[in-house]
Design goal:
By secondary structure, this protein is of the alpha+beta class. The protein has a domain at about 25-150: Glutaredoxin (3-Layer(aba) Sandwich), CATH 3.40.30.10. It is built from seven helices and eight strands; from the N terminus they run H-E-E-H-E-H-H-E-E-E-H-E-E-H-H. It has helices spanning about 15-20, 45-55, 70-80, 85-95, 115-125, 155-165, 175-184; strands at about 25-30, 35, 60-65, 95-100, 105-110, 115, 130-140, 140-150. The strands form three sheets. Strands 4-3-7-8 form a four-stranded mixed sheet. Strand 7 and strand 8 (about 140-150) form a beta hairpin. Helix 4 (about 85-95) packs parallel to helix 6. The longest helix is centred in the C-terminal third of the chain and has 12 residues, at about 155-165. The radius of gyration is 16 Å and the shape is globular. The chain starts with 12 loop residues before the first helix and ends with a helix.
């Protein structure tokens, strides 16, 4: 596959500041009107490459779909990720690429198809924001293993990330996994 092209992008200003000062990362409102975390992956928008890089580091890989003016997206980035327990777990266990449901950037999908963000959102049936798609190796290929369409409550939000990080998606649904966790 060759060297990881993302290595040439560096850590990014937010990630390097957090690494050197120990400070928390922050949500950023981009010029496109979308909120993102400054620790999200700086990507060449080749999702297969991004997923391989994350998995190679022992992390999970997810895409987070958002759109300009989405109040739930703003809440995700300014409230949920402001909680150290949520932000710390997700940041430690996952690499996330932000995509815009109405965006026009060209993206190479996991299967190698090149599409604009809006066309990829349609292909992947992303109908609400924020939506997280989680990917892992299954049957020798990278596949979507779980999806969070919309913003769950904070406890369930974190539980979904734990569900994926622990491989809970093998053999049962998120709801079944969550019931088993609550019964403990």
């Amino acid at each position: 596959m060759g060297p990881d092209r993302r290595a040439f992008l560096g850590l990014g200003v937010g990630a390097s500041l957090a690494a050197t000062t120990g400070s928390r990362a922050a949500s950023v409102l981009g010029d496109d009107g979308n909120y993102v975390q400054d620790w999200y992956v700086d990507s060449f928008l080749d999702l297969g490459e991004d997923a391989q890089a994350a998995l190679g580091k022992g992390k999970g890989f997810a895409t987070q779909w958002g759109m300009r003016g989405c109040p739930a997206c703003k809440r995700l980035h300014t409230v949920y990720f402001a909680e150290p327990g949520i932000e710390g777990f997700v940041r430690e266990k996952f690499e996330i690429v932000h995509l815009d449901t109405f965006g026009s950037r060209e993206v190479t999908d996991i299967d190698g198809e090149r599409l604009g963000e809006k066309a990829l959102a349609a292909k992947r049936a992303v109908r609400t924001t924020p939506t997280f798609q989680f990917f892992a190796m299954q049957g020798g290929r990278i596949a979507e293993v779980a999806r969070m369409p919309g913003l769950l409550g904070e406890r369930e939000f974190l539980a979904m990330f734990r569900f994926v990080a622990e491989g809970g998606y093998t053999g049962r649904s998120f709801e079944e996994w969550l019931k088993a966790q609550q019964a403990r």
